[in-house]
Amino acid sequence: MDESERLGLLTGQMDLEPAEEHTSARPACYVPSQHSVPDMTPGQPTREKDVFVHAAQLPNGKQIKLLKTLLTSACERDCFYCPFRAGRDFRRATFKPDEFAQVFMELTRKNIAEGAFISSGIAGGGVRTQDKLIDTAEIMRTKYGFRGYLHIKIMPGAQKEQVYRAMQLADRVSINLEAPNTERLAKLAPHKTFIEELFRPLQWVEEIRRTQPSYKGWNGRWPSTVTQFVAGGSDESDLELLTTTSWLMKNVSLNRAYYSAFRPVPDTPLENKPAVDPLREHRLYQASFLLRDYGFDLEDMPFAQDGNLPLPTDPKLAWAQMNLSERPVEINRAEKRELMRIPGIGPKGAEAILRARSLSQLRDLSALKKLGIVAERAAPYVLLDGKQAARQPALF
Ligand code: SF4
């Protein structure tokens, strides 16, 4: 099997890893193996030999062409949802560290990829597999001088020293929890241990960030950390997922949680389990952003009796309907955290309001619109100079 074919096989199913995507929307662009300049328009894979490159958004907002790949799709574990699980009959492929680094640098020279996310199936244990990922990253950084974006996956069972070394080479590290707690993980991946293999490395990352000077990290800073959950894969509730997400954001500086709506994979123990509505994934993202950026607490989330968010309404709107319909917020007096709770107003909009009202009172919706606020969305929940905002009739 030539390099291009191997890369096609290894990158072909990485849309299961939504890391670096801006929204819950699926990626991507598919780059023919002849190495033509990529068309970043979403499309469908055409041939097995294609190399898959994803349009990704970095934490600083920059868009890059990200090669997400495994070093090997051979795996000795048997996670119930995973296409790469041990014993599943499909064509597997492997790169040695130097081989992969060379291929990747060739892709960067041809402007096909600008950054990489490297992960792996587990072969020979988590420690050995992590060593291969670290070797690969070291070759990319030192032998080939790659200075672009690099995301390294931390393997279940990796050691603390390996986590530290990965953090010295990467812009981002991730440890996928897959499920929100021990009990749920047992339904998805019975041979992974939630606390020892997954949760503890997340704590190590934070411990290293807090105790070691940042100049020891890549480019003088420590990498950001993300995790991923298989949403709906273990019949967990949104409350369970968001409880864990919220804890991680507060206690180990988790930058972002990714939710991948469960989709059954043929020839796995969960092949007959129904797929989860992608809208659930979207609602989880919205809720996690409210927790991270908008000052919401878990208790503010409009969970139904079963612990799930309502699918038809976005959680911020549902909260406002319950809490602000009868008590609209005076735009000219509210604090920033109150403004951010109003539908249509985000952190930037709230800042813009604070600046504008220090100059003059905001008296109508057009003043909000000029600040870039989705005024019609905010209108039912705000007062402008003591008056309920007059909503303009819809033209269509
Ligand atoms: S360890 Fe990773 S690659 Fe292996 S079966 Fe589990 S999820 Fe899949």
Summarize the structure.
The chain is α/β, with parallel strands linked by helices and 396 residues long.
Bound molecules: iron/sulfur cluster
CATH class annotation of the largest domain: Alpha Beta
Instruction: Specify the helix fraction band.
Output: 25-40%
Mean pLDDT value: 90
- Name the CATH architecture of the largest domain: Alpha-Beta Barrel
Which outline best applies? Answer: globular
Number of helices: 13
What is the CATH homology-level superfamily of the largest domain? Answer: Aldolase class I
Largest sheet: 8 strands, mixed
The percent range for strand residues is 5-15%
Order of helices and strands: HEEEHEHEHEHHEHEHHEHHHHEE
- CATH fold topology of the largest domain: TIM Barrel
**What structural class should be given to the helix and strand makeup?**
alpha/beta
Q: Within the largest sheet, what's the order of strands? A: 1-2-3-4-5-6-7-8
What is the C-alpha radius of gyration, as a whole number of Å?
A: 23 Å
In total, the number of domains comes to: 2
Q: What is the strand tally? A: 11
CA distance, first residue to last residue: 58 Å
What secondary-structure arrangement, pairings included, does this model have?
Blueprint: H1 3-11, E1 29-31, E2 51-57, E3 63-70, H2 97-109, E4 115-119, H3 126-143, E5 150-153, H4 160-169, E6 172-174, H5 182-188, H6 194-211, E7 224-231, H7 238-251, E8 256-261, H8 278-293, H9 315-323, E9 329-330, H10 336-339, H11 347-357, H12 365-370, H13 375-378, E10 382-384, E11 387-388
Parallel strand pairs: 3-4, 4-5, 5-6, 6-7, 7-8, 9-10
Antiparallel strand pairs: 1-2, 2-3, 10-11
Helix pairs in contact: 2-3, 3-4, 4-6, 7-8
The structure holds iron/sulfur cluster.
The site of iron/sulfur cluster has 9 residues, from loops.
